[in-house]
Amino acid sequence: MNEYVPGLEGVPATRSNISHIDGEQGVLAYRGYPIAELAEHSSFEETALLLLDGQLPTTQELADFDTQLRTNRRMKYNIRAMMKSLPSSGHPMEMLQTAVASLGMFYPGRERLTGPNAWEDLEYVHGMSVRIIARMATLVAMWEHIRNGYDPVEPRTDLNHAENFLYMLTGEDPDPFFAKVLDVSLVLHAEHTINASTFAALVAGSTLATPSAVVAVAIGTLFGPLHGGANQKVVEMLAEIGAPDKAKPWLDKQLAAKGKIWGMGHREYKVKDPRAIILQRLMEKMVDYQGGKVSPLFETALALEEAAVERLGPKGVYPNVDYYSGILYAEMGIPGDQFTSIFAMARCAGWLAHWREQLRYNRIFRPTQMYTGEDVRSYVPIKQR
Ligand code: COA
Fold it and tell me: Using a 6 Å cutoff on CB, does residue 21 contact ligand 1?
């Protein structure tokens, strides 16, 4: 094959049975289960295990996995000390990438990946997946306190994953409605086929790098505003617009300047992202829950969507997952620069599921290129140039 496809659009990079998208129909399913059904009936813990193992767990399997997550929330003292030495002005995703990369130094086992059938070594492969999924939430919450000069809040084992995260983030008993909203959001963000960060994870995994290195690579890739970083940009954009009646003139100006509308457009979807539909409904419930007292962000987002769909809909550009998620998190009092870290906390389940699948059928990624440089030529000594 000699055709170069920018951005590898439409080029299959792997075979996978973890999730699939129908971008014309607006369908997303994890292991065959539609995302709307998982959002309604499942939990982050169950969805993560579904992604990792391939089938819905039994009551006992889910209880065991939940216990493993609850007992893996605490962080080594040295990682906390390392976090304290990082600049508080740094972005939380940079902290997260650094801290997750360091986990490999505390939980050795890289030699187990070079043995035969490493994917079957579940003590390591599943054990590391649990450690990383449980601790990602701990790290994100810890950083909120450390960067503000406080000691982090210790995790609790009597709370589920979403509840414990909110407890650790705020130091207060979690609001049950907020915890449910977060849990659904984590389900929605847990997996999404071969997006940029999952592809990066596959490339790293194909070299038999450790799972902490694989996830650190993926975190760095998710950070960019064209990918997970868009959720922070959306709320900044809506705050800049300021009010619903300013949305249309702002859009016209932005498009005339060839600027982006953050949280809109997707390589795979040509219709509204099914996750955006669910998050928008959750935000409507949030408005009811707050007795209508919410910031103008949501109304501004609705007005911007209406205007943008008129202009961009013919190109297949509609709201994606990042359009409404940040508005929900902002309503819960979560700082804007933590939104992408929450995305990462969820997506690590998908990254690790793909890592395990990659190990099973591994062949190192080594694509080729179309060389556009000079022909071979003789070196010119510096005085003759
Ligand atoms: N705002 C304005 N125009 C957009 C747009 C957006 N957010 N997303 C796509 N478009 C337009 C492009 O300008 C292009 O128009 P053209 O054909 O007239 O040149 C067309 O739609 C196709 O877009 P393209 O950039 O080729 O799509 P892509 O598949 O390469 O990129 C994204 C996909 C997600 C990177 C892109 O839609 C984007 O930058 N979105 C904003 C960032 C974002 O929300 N990312 C999170 C994704 S979950």
Answer: no
